[in-house]
Each structure stands twice: as structure tokens, then as C-alpha cells.
Amino acid sequence: MAKIRVVNGVRYSDDDSRVTHVRWGTVDTDRNEWIKGPEEAEVVDVVDALMAGHEVWTIYTEQGRTVSGPRLRTVGDSEEAEGIETHPGPNDHRTLRDLPRF
After folding, report:
1. Which pTM does this prediction carry?
2. Residue 90's pLDDT is what?
3. To the nearest whole number, what is the mean pLDDT of the chain?
4. What is the strand order of the sheet 33-42 is part of?
5. Digit-coded pLDDT (tens) for 7-57
6. What residues form DSSP beta bridges with 18?
């Protein structure tokens, strides 16, 4: 069973300048099923997971289907990351702003 952490929704600050919370969980990629979650968490929890070496990906809904999106990475000073952003591949330019808001 391949397990990955995924984000499928975001909440922005009142001034809409940064992500403050995510909706995330763990998915079994072999079965395309949630193992844990999704649940709301502060963005610092994602930053901590990324800083600990875990990969975190995005998932999007397109035409009623769930599809994988770009990986996430931290932003800010390398020792004190402040937030997250997508790390798009050559054919995928979706961002956190493309995810549903809650």
C-alpha cells in the first residue's frame, strides 16, 4: 500500500495574502481511498511534515473526478519556513488558489 499525504482544500488569511489552514489527510494511492482524513489543520502542520522530509501533494476535482496535482513545498527562510506553495511540474501549473476554499 502506497500512502501519501494530500491537501484538497485551503483557507486564506482575512487579507487573502497567505494560506492559514488546509484540509488534508493520508491516501492509499493503490486503492484511491482516504486512510485518514480529510481534516482541517493549521498550515504549520504541513510545513512541519515537509521539513521532516515527508512529501505532501495536492488533489483536485475535475469533471467529477479526483486527480493528482503538484507537490507542495515550503516558502520562506530555509530554517524558518513560513508557508507552503505548489511545486508545479512542466505540464501542471495549478496552484493552491485552484483548490476549494473552506
Report:
1. 0.91
2. 84
3. 92
4. 33-42, 19-28, 3-12, 56-62, 65-77, 80-87
5. 999 999 999 999 999 999 999 999 989 999 999 999 999 999 999 999 999
6. none
The residue among 27, 72, 76, 81 whose CA lies nearest residue 54 is: 72
Closest CA to 50 of 19, 35, 72, 29: 72
What separation in angstroms does the CA of 4 have from each of 15, 56, 57, 63, 80? Answer: 31, 7, 8, 23, 24
Torsion angle defined by CA atoms of residues 47, 54, 68 and 33, in that order, rounded to the nearest 10 degrees = -110
CA 19, 22, 28, 31 dihedral sign is negative
Contacts (Cβ under 8 Å, ≥6 apart) of 69: 57, 58, 59, 60, 86, 92, 94, 98
